[in-house]
Amino acid sequence: MPYFKYQNKSIFYKEYGQGERLVFLHGNTVSSKMFEFLMPLYAENFRCVLIDFLGNGQSDRIEKFSPNIWYDEALQTIALIEHLQCGKVSLIGTSGGAWAAVNAALERPDLFHTVIADSFDGRTLNDNFSDNLLSEREKAKANLQSRQFYEWCQGKDWEMVVDLDTKALLQCAKEKSPLFHKPLKEMKIPVLFIGSREDEMCRENLEEEYTEMASMIEKSSIHIFSCGGHPAIVSNAEESAKLIKNFVSEYKIK
């Protein structure tokens, strides 16, 4: 299985298909496994790269997650692209992975072609983030299907991973840590924002937030699905794949 080293830890990644590389960044408490069943929708057009961020999936475990978790994951993403030595890639990040994707593109625009940011709150966490997070995590841990999903993504130590992630996110919310480490107006990479109006895990004014973010970026698009849960690229899988293929093709590397 392929791994690369980051800060003396091993990070797992996996590749599917052929063509221009499209790197998938998973959200919090899950792993790259969540993308595997989507690969038939993408692998004919892209060389898909799936990564397990440190502390998740088949990557090495860590003692704690940083409250700046999405910036740290952006740095891991950059390290992956440098390891692959493959030129520019496109990024698709979903939920927490969307923050990682945007941060990576702001940090190293020379490495990226396009960014797809799916199902995330944007520039700030919603006002009820901490309460909603605690409630959602406790319900999930008590639900057999959710426990099985966590174990499928993370392994037998899934509960430790979930608890460490919850602690980091609560600290992030308490400290009001900046979610983007550089201003969005500095974004040089085309960005496609995707979400769903029915997504209960995102802020209620998601379309408004996306619109304001897009206004700061020279090349950007927004698509909000009328139905579907969290995240949109899963609940609206075929439609999302078409959107993403068209968006990447629109800004195809010459």
What does the model show?
The chain is of the alpha/beta class and 254 residues long. The protein has one domain (3-250): Alpha/Beta hydrolase fold, catalytic domain (Rossmann fold), CATH 3.40.50. The chain has helices spanning 33-36, 39-42, 69-84, 96-107, 129-142, 144-154, 158-175, 206-214, 232-235, 237-250; strands spanning 3-6, 9-16, 20-25, 46-51, 89-94, 112-118, 191-196, 220-225. The protein has an 8-stranded mixed sheet, with helices on both faces. The longest helix has 18 residues, at 158-175. It is globular and about 45 Å long.
Termini separation comes to: 33 Å
Determine Rg (CA atoms, Å).
17 Å
By DSSP (H or I, 4+ residues per run), the number of helices equals 10
Q: What do we call the CATH homologous superfamily?
A: Alpha/Beta hydrolase fold, catalytic domain
By secondary-structure content and strand pairing, the structural class works out as alpha/beta
